[in-house]
């Protein structure tokens, strides 16, 4: 026994059928297993169709890219591009747009949408809308839609909506109808729009039907193949025709044709008119809130008519795939081409088609404007059983025509005339409005294309809204007889709900001056319940169930009425609208773009702080060593309209904001619009901030650049200059010892002539340093003057206050009474100025001032008096290295430093001997001296400082004990 898979038309789902081997019977156990498997499989199919949750079966391929023009699976190896692929290419093109193009699109579709009138003109268009509840019936033979579509007055756009396009039974709601009914109605619409009026003269739809029947090998008006459209023979023939359709499409270049919409639900399954012809099962569950790309979207369709004739021919073609079918098909196509040449021009093309169970909508546009229709999307929302199934709900179409967005919503709302049913219908409208969503590509999102119904420029809502008339049946029928429409409209539930702001707020509906469209006895002009004698006839109060509403500034309703077509229990309703579409005028757009660029530049300037500095060059004048210059003002003017935040930054971006010899206050801050902030700039030169010898070599010029960075406003540069007055502080001992005149007159040339004389003080015979010669030739005159002043008898008493335990005198405070002494910085500066210029010390210069100046001089030496090797020795192990360090001092110092060292130790020893009776101690003097003779690197943590102080004290004690 073997099992094969088949897809019978009759149920619309895959069914497993046993096929017997010759002479064998299906065993009962296997039959039971097969039946259980079939039930499970059927349940999975139901679940998939109900709520769209089941994953696709392995090996299945329902994606749009895997389907041909008719929605049937493509053969392996085919490369026909699909609308989805074309849309992907279109998206990529949009993402690679130039900045100029992006700016244009931003103007057209973006935040500047309100300026659209400045670069567009309006194009007058007409829209014809028709809605019909066909009561689950297919179009009968001979049915003409001329009155419904008003083809004698052709419109630019046709929107046709159907309700109950299939019977609303369990099979249709849960499984679907394969889309055959929708295809037949679309074929009739196509024939009416495309072939009118030439085809009318040649028989119109009837001629088409006869041609199709000849193609099937039948006599006109004959029957379908044995078994009907749901038979297995018909099914096999249909699959054959589908394959031929795919082959024809591949020969033509592929692509999704009009009427064969490739759509997706949330679960990724195809679900549309095209899918209906190949086994897709539309329903509310899988489409709830989903969106789909409709027919002909993307750049492939620009200027090209999207033709649905192939779909119609295939759907109504021969059920049998015999060898002569293609020849017959070619012959019929030739006949149609001949009719087209005689005047039967294809004037309309379909751009969208969407079905959800019984609700169906299709949109047709005039061929000439097809290339201006872009970004077509569809969406379906089920609000029926369980709130999601598609027996009730809506299908919507969104499209962009030129630069105007249009949305068409076709709905079938909750039925019933019980109290409160109108509120349920209004709730359906709210739910549809909330859940309808059009998925947009990245490029479309950048263009701000609408994703919801309310975001569109123009909106039209059509369908069987099922609102009733809130009057007794007899009163309604009497008013209908009198054609008293105003009385009935006053009690129309939709109008009452609108007036109460419960539904369709700010939407409009035309004047109703036609009879209620529901409920008729099919094929008659008689309302149901009019003839009480008729058996089984349920009485229904006439009502305007079928309506068309609109919302949009450009929309103007020209006609509103009904068509007298008697198929089904509803009369169709039609409406004609005049509207406008915004059309870009290139010249206006370019002018607007130029205007916007200029405005954007101005806005950018206005939104940025605009600052200026005054002056551009700050002159600090003469700069003395250790003395701050008077602050010079630098003004920051905020000439812009916004607050300016600023900060001084390093030229290179990573260092300090200004040179170490400069002080800028404040370094950062903000300036209010139109205000001026003053920044002070001053300088202070010392050996820690400046290489004074290098400055003298630059002819005493001090120069620096300040960079002021304004947040959002760029960088501003200020040049700072000053004239350095040479000082003995910061020069090497050998340089100073070489000059007999004061250093204030020292020039770059003078400094360059001085060499290193350390080697000249050694004894020519022994090679040892001569102490006398060293002290006489290598000690600067400035040091000798300080020591001479300190050693004067009148100053000897001042040395003790200079070097007591706390060293208060060095800090400018008298140790005796703690009163504030003279400003130590000013006093030292005066002494320094006297030394640099050769002038006498200011009268009253104290010994402690002279000693403080001496310590300052020693600290400023470029090379410390005691070398680094000595410092390393005493810090490594003071207990064992003390004597070694003393030896290093005696033997390792260069002559210039040795002479200075000997003079200092001798002078300090004498001071200690003189001041011993007044409490002057070597410990106090060593504490001050240890911080300066080892240079700037000598001051470290307390433990090592104590070692250095002890070492210096040892040196002093050795001298005082001699």
Structure commentary:
The chain is an alpha+beta fold. The protein has 32 helices and 24 strands. Among the domains are: 2-51; 608-722, Immunoglobulin-like; 733-960, Rho GTPase activation protein (Phosphatidylinositol 3-kinase, Chain A). The strands form five sheets. The chain has a seven-stranded mixed beta sheet with strand order 5-8-9-10-11-13-12. β9 (393-401) and β10 (404-412) form a beta hairpin. The longest helix has 24 residues, at 28-51. It is rod-shaped. The N and C termini lie far apart (129 Å). Residues 1-24, 46-96, 198-293, 296-326, 338-345, 759-767 and 803-820 have low confidence and may be disordered.
Summarize this structure as a short list of keywords or feature phrases:
37% helix, rod-shaped, seven-stranded mixed beta sheet, 24 strands, six-stranded mixed beta sheet, disordered N terminus, alpha+beta, Phosphatidylinositol 3-kinase, Chain A
Care to give the gist of this entry?
The chain has 962 residues and is of the alpha+beta class.
């Amino acid at each position: 026994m073997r099992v094969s898979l088949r897809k019978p038309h009759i149920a619309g789902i895959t069914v497993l059928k046993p096929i017997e081997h010759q002479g064998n019977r299906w065993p009962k156990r296997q039959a039971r297993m097969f039946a259980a498997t079939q039930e499970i499989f059927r349940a999975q199919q139901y679940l998939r169709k109900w709520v769209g949750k089941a994953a696709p079966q392995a090996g299945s391929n329902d994606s749009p890219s895997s389907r041909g023009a008719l929605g049937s699976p493509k053969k392996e190896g085919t490369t026909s591009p699909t609308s989805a692929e074309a849309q992907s290419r279109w998206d990529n093109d949009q993402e690679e747009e130039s900045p100029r193009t992006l700016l244009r699109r931003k103007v057209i579709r973006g935040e500047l949408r309100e300026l659209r009138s400045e670069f567009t003109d309006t194009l007058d268009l007409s829209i014809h809308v028709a809605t019909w509840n066909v009561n689950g019936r297919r179009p009968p033979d001979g049915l003409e839609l001329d009155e419904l579509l008003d083809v004698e007055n052709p419109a630019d756009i046709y929107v046709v909506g159907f309700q109950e396009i299939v019977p609303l039974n369990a099979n249709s709601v849960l499984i679907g109808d394969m889309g055959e009914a929708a295809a037949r109605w679309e074929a009739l619409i196509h024939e009416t729009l495309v072939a009118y009026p030439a085809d009318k003269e040649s028989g119109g739809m009837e001629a088409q039907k006869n041609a199709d029947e000849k193609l099937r090998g039948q006599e006109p008006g004959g029957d379908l193949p044995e078994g009907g459209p749901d038979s297995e023979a018909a099914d096999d023939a249909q699959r054959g025709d589908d394959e031929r359709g795919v082959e024809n499409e591949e020969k033509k270049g592929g692509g999704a044709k009009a009427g064969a919409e490739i759509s997706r639900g949330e679960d990724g399954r195809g679900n549309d008119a095209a899918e209906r012809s190949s086994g897709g099962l539309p329903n509310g569950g899988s489409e709830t809130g989903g969106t789909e790309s409709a027919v002909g979207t993307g750049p492939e369709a620009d200027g090209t008519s999207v033709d649905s004739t192939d779909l119609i021919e295939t759907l109504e073609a021969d059920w049998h795939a015999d060898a002569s079918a293609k020849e017959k098909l070619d012959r019929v196509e030739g006949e149609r081409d001949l009719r087209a040449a005689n005047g039967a021009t294809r004037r309309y093309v379909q751009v969208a088609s969407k079905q959800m169970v019984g609700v169906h909508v299709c949109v047709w546009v005039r061929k000439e404007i097809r290339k201006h229709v872009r970004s077509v999307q569809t969406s379906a929302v089920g609000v029926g059983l369980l709130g999601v199934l598609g027996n009730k709900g809506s299908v919507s179409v969104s499209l962009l025509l030129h630069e105007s967005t249009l949305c068409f919503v076709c709905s079938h709302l909750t039925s019933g005339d019980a109290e409160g049913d109108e509120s349920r219908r209004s709730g359906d409208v709210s739910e549809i409005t909330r859940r309808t969503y059009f998925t947009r590509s990245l490029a479309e999102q950048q263009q701000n294309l609408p994703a919801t119904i309310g975001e569109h420029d123009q909106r039209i809502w059509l369908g069987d809204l099922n609102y009733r008339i809130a009057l007794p049946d007899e009163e309604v029928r009497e008013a209908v007889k009198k054609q008293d429409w105003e009385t009935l409209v006053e009690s129309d539930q939709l109008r009452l709900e609108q007036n109460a702001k419960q539904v369709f707020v700010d939407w409009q509906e035309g004047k109703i001056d036609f009879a209620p469209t529901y409920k008729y006895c099919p094929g008659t002009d008689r309302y149901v319940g009019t003839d009480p004698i008729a058996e089984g006839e349920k009485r229904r109060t006439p009502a305007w169930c079928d309506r068309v509403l609109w919302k949009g500034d450009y929309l103007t309703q020209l006609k509103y009425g009904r068509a007298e077509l008697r198929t089904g229990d509803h009369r169709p309703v039609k409406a004609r609208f005049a509207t406008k579409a915004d059309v870009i005028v290139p010249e206006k757009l370019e002018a607007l773009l130029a205007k916007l660029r200029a405005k954007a530049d101005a806005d950018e300037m206005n939104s940025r702080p605009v600052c200026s500095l005054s002056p551009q060059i700050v002159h600090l004048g003469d700069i003395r060593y250790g003395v701050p210059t008077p602050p010079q003002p630098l003004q920051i003017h905020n000439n812009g309209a916004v607050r300016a935040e600023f900060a001084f930054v390093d030229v290179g971006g990573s260092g300090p904001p200004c040179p170490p010899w400069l002080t800028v206050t404040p370094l950062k801050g903000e300036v209010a619009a139109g205000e001026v902030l003053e920044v002070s700039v001053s300088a202070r030169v010392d050996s820690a901030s400046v290489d004074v010898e290098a400055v003298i070599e630059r002819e005493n010029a001090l120069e620096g650049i300040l960079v002021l960075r304004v947040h959002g406003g760029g960088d501003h540069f200020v040049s700072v200059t000053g004239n350095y007055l040479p000082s003995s502080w910061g020069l090497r001992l050998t340089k100073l010892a070489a000059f007999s005149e004061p250093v204030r007159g020292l020039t770059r040339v003078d400094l360059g002539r001085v060499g290193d004389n350390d080697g000249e003080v050694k004894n020519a015979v022994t090679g040892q340093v001569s102490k006398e010669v060293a002290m006489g030739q290598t000690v600067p005159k400035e040091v000798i003057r300080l020591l001479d002043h300190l050693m004067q008898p009148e100053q000897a008493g001042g040395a003790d206050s200079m070097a007591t335990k706390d060293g208060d005198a060095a800090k400018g405070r008298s140790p005796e009474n703690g009163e504030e002494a003279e400003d130590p910085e000013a006093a030292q500066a005066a002494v320094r100025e006297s030394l640099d210029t050769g002038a006498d010390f200011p009268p009253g210069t104290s010994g402690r001032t002279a000693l403080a100046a001496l310590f300052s001089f020693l600290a400023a030496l470029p090379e410390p008096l005691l070398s680094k090797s000595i410092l390393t020795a005493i810090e490594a192990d003071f207990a064992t290295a003390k004597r070694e360090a003393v030896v290093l001092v005696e033997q390792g110092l260069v002559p210039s430093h040795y002479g200075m060292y000997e003079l200092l130790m001798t002078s300090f020893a004498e001071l200690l001997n003189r001041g011993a009776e007044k409490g002057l101690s070597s410990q106090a003097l060593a504490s001050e001296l240890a911080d300066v003779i080892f240079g700037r690197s000598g001051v470290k943590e307390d433990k090592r400082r104590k070692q250095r102080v002890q070492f210096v004290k040892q040196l002093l004690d050795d001298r005082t004990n001699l």
